[in-house]
Records
---
Amino acid sequence: MIKSDICELLGIKYPVFQGGMAWIADGKLAAAVSNGGGLGIIAAGNGSGERVRNEIKIAKSLTDKPFGVNIMLMSPHADEVAEVVREEKVAVVTTGAGNPSKYMQGWKDAGIHVIPVVPSVAMAKIMTRLGASALIAEGGESGGHVGELTTMVLVPLVRDATSLPVIAAGGIADGRGVAAAFMLGACGVQLGTRFLSAEECTIHPTYREKILKVGDLATMVTGKRLGHPVRSLRTNFVREYAKMEFSGMSDEELSGKAEGAFRIAVQEGDSEKGCFLAGQCAAMVKKVQPAAEIVREIMEEAEPILRGASAWVK
Ligand code: TUI
């Protein structure tokens, strides 16, 4: 059994977080992961405070284990959601797509563990100084909003920049990734794409089929021109969007082209209009199974790998 500091800190059995995937990670998925011994996370995405409160209530009704809420800091509702998580006293808040400095003290005062995603050493240092409980070092292999650095480079750099527990994310889909993350200095992992195939994950059947079918070169990053790079499956919509990025189209018109595309992928499964966020490790996702089984399976796979690592040393 692999145990680490993060298990003790948060009161979880396995050091596995489920990533906060916008429009996807709801109270039902989060509860299933938490019941499986990991840390389930509700994604606030662009949702309103009341919408997030409702998902928190659903999760509370389905589990008595700790779970988290991910706050997407570019959301117009971020202030409102920041208040809701305080009122609901969720155990953990993770943040993404921005700097959560202005909320940190308020969350800490409410007894919430704040665990920000940091895409750089500079952000890791700021979050350490402001009293984060741990950091998520998310490399650019991940799906959704991505930073510049890969997991392989970011995790050891963040490890060296902080004394806090580091959770590795980006490109991890099985026990080999878990073992590698620990070797890089992480004491936990966060997986998003692998949970897209969880039985409790509510996405359009077409989305799930795509994830189960795709190969190694299936994803690409778009959105750099507007400063919000996202990794997603290379669908017709995304190919067309990539062409428009290099056209003479104005920034305003370009940003309108992507409006609603994440929601359309999740709820309508439409490849012509939807943007199917996914990490590079989508190619490693091969079966539908309960969330709890995913958590247990990856940790059981990691165990013999970590034990066997000493065989390399002669
Ligand atoms: O946040 C994510 N992944 C996401 S968010 C999302 S929804 C979205 N909507 C509109 C545009 C873009 C995304 C889909 N996927 N992952 C965590 C993450 N955070 N990756 C990178 C960052 C990040 C980037 C910059 C964190 C902090 C940061 O700070 C910049 C600064 O200094 O403010």
Note: The two ends are 26 Å apart (CA to CA).
---
Amino acid sequence: MNTVDAIRVSRCAGALGAEIAGVDLAAPLGESLIDALRRIWLEHGVIFFRDQNLSPAQFAATARRFGEPVEYPFVKGLPDHPEIIEVIKREHETVNFGGVWHSDTAYLERPPMATMLLARETPPYGGDTLFANQYLAWETLSEGMRGMLTRLRCLNSSDKADVSRTREDRVRENAAPLAKQRYAAAHPVARTHPETGRVSLYVNVAHALRFEGMSEEESAPILGYLFAHQVKPEFTCRFQWRPGSLALWDNRCTLHNPVNDYHGSRRAMLRITLAGDAPV
Ligand code: SIN
């Protein structure tokens, strides 16, 4: 039986991330527990649980307690759970899914609020995921830079080569039948979080193409600066997976990057994204 009093929170780093103990996600999750977890999540940007050996049905049920699962546009989900995709890197593969700093599917008009990742099989070493706090990225820019960026919107596209190559293995194996060739959406560079009211930097190297009203060439120097700035080590944390580890990240104010340092070993995760708002 889960109780709010049993929750224990350990911060992973100065910037973001907290590991939660004392919760069994397979057991009933009452309203007060979900409210408490949501508050912790909003404060830390990404939360981690250990030893949650959930079946796909239990994983989907847990996700529905936090939001509304939505399907990933490019890869078909599990036969009984289309909202769950498998994020696998096989022993012979050299490219990992999403292996570049990004916020999930920022090229959609309404990108997901959150992503949940459940580790099923982990390599003997490596395969960690890095996260970066984009409130800090925003707040540490100069007043002049923030003033300029506040007026800008950025066009995000699904077909930038660095990221589209990271999904090719999964698409070849299991393409979503109704996937468009390309998705694109423009969003504010300074994004106001709908729940915390805080402003975060909302661009990412995987999807950001150019500022609206500017060419790619004109946008490149400023975007290049922001891409380097937003992942400074002091804005990040690093999570080491074990089978049964589960992460829930806030896709509105964090970036993530799975480290591709385990060639020859298999890593298998289940992934669900939760519906979000149009960024403002
Ligand atoms: C993703 O970008 O959703 C995958 C993250 C990971 O495999 O750690």
Note: The longest helix spans residues 31-44.
